[in-house]
Design a protein that fits this description.
The protein has 2 domains: 2-98, 2-Layer Sandwich (Alpha-Beta Plaits), CATH 3.30.70; 140-304, Vaccinia Virus protein VP39 (Rossmann fold). The strands form 3 sheets. Strands 10-9-8-11-12-14-13 form a 7-stranded mixed sheet, sandwiched between helices. Strands 2-3-1-4 form a 4-stranded antiparallel sheet, covered by helices on one side. It starts with a strand and ends with a strand. The chain contains 10 helices and 14 strands. The protein has helices spanning 15-24, 72-83, 101-107, 149-161, 177-184, 197-209, 224-229, 245-250, 252-258, 275-282; strands at 2-11, 29-34, 59-67, 91-97, 112-113, 118-121, 133-136, 167-171, 189-193, 217-220, 236-242, 259-271, 286-294, 297-304. It is an alpha/beta fold and 305 residues long. The protein is 30% helix and 30% strand. Helix 1 (15-24) crosses helix 2 (72-83). Keywords: Cytoplasm, Methyltransferase, Ribonucleoprotein, Ribosomal protein, S-adenosyl-L-methionine, Transferase. S-adenosyl-L-methionine binds at residues 151, 172, 194, 242. This is Ribosomal protein L11 methyltransferase.
Length: 305
């Protein structure tokens, strides 16, 4: 069995209209993506809460999947009548053959080496170094597969700075990857916090997969639960937060309260141009330092006064 993909060039004004029109013509699925993806002209759409950003790419492509036996000429004619673009549609057709989609998806995720002793290994791979600290983690619904630079920056910092017996809070835990890593690196107690119940569920599942369990390890959507569980005064030796710049700024008093005096904080999810403002905010409580950078993302660290 095979399918046909119709790919039409679009812009911000007609991409959504094309998408709707293709669905009305019986498309099995429709996708809008950047026509310049994976090139130097790729347009990023991410933004911070409260800050405006482009809602769609200026030069987009609308990709629609159809069964192989459709009348593509009729579909194109109907789409033209529905959208009424200026000029002819710029399109191309591609044929997709049936494949082992599970195997294909898995092939995109290989083990990731974070350091000499720390690896991230999907469940379908053998650990390249069985004697290393291997974080067993599959791609899922929660952020944190280990492939993003912000996650790798945090993991590398934990590997270099966490001391055996430390108490750690992972604020915005996502998949729980940083919390799992902290426990495997020798933390005595780790708490993961996320406002998304799905992330908490994913973290709990990943903790079980990595043989991490209570009472040293727990996840919650309520940061106040940490203060009831961690002593003294519910404070940690290390707080790590891989979120985004604006939430980090808004959460600064909460995160600062979670760190004991002389304890450490590590902040990621920060673009280079945002680092100065985040650093300035946290200097109220911490002696702040700029850490490593990777692909335009910055890790900020500090010790609490």
């Amino acid at each position: 069995m095979s399918w046909v993909t119709l790919i039409i060039k679009a812009d911000a004004t007609n991409a959504e209209l094309l998408s709707d029109a293709l669905m009305e013509q019986g498309a099995l699925s429709v996708d809008i993506h950047d026509a310049a993806a994976d090139t130097q002209d790729e347009q990023m759409l991410f933004g911070e809460p409260g800050e405006p950003c482009d809602e769609i790419w200026r030069n987009a492509e609308v990709s629609a999947l159809f069964n192989q036996d459709v009348d593509m000429n009729e579909i194109l004619h109907n789409v033209m009548n529905s959208v009424q673009p200026e000029g002819q549609l710029d399109f191309r057709l591609e044929r997709i053959e049936e494949q082992d989609w599970v195997r294909l998806t898995q092939s995109q995720f290989d083990p990731i080496r974070i350091s000499q002793r720390l690896w991230i290994v999907p469940t379908w791979h053998q650990a390249p170094d069985p004697d290393a600290i291997n974080l067993i983690l599959d791609p899922g619904l929660a952020f944190g597969t280990g492939s993003h630079p912000t996650t790798q920056l945090c993991l590398s910092w934990l590997d270099q700075n966490l001391q055996p017996g430390d108490k750690v809070v992972d604020y915005g835990c996502g998949s729980g990857i940083l919390a799992v890593a902290a426990l495997k690196l020798g933390a005595s107690h780790v708490a993961g916090i996320d406002i998304d119940p799905q992330a908490v569920k994913a973290s709990q599942e990943n903790a079980i997969r990595n043989h991490c369990s209570a009472p040293q390890f727990f996840f919650t959507t309520d940061h106040r639960a940490v203060t009831r569980d961690m002593q003294p005064q519910g404070q940690a030796d290390i707080v790590v937060a891989n979120i985004l710049a604006n939430p980090l700024i808004m959460l600064a008093p909460v995160l600062a309260q979670l760190v004991r005096q002389q304890g450490f904080i590590a902040l990621s999810g920060i673009l280079q141009q945002q680092a100065a403002e985040v650093k300035r905010t946290y200097q109220q409580w911490f002696d702040m330092h700029s850490g490593e950078e990777q692909q335009g993302w910055v890790l900020l660290t500090g010790s609490k006064r």
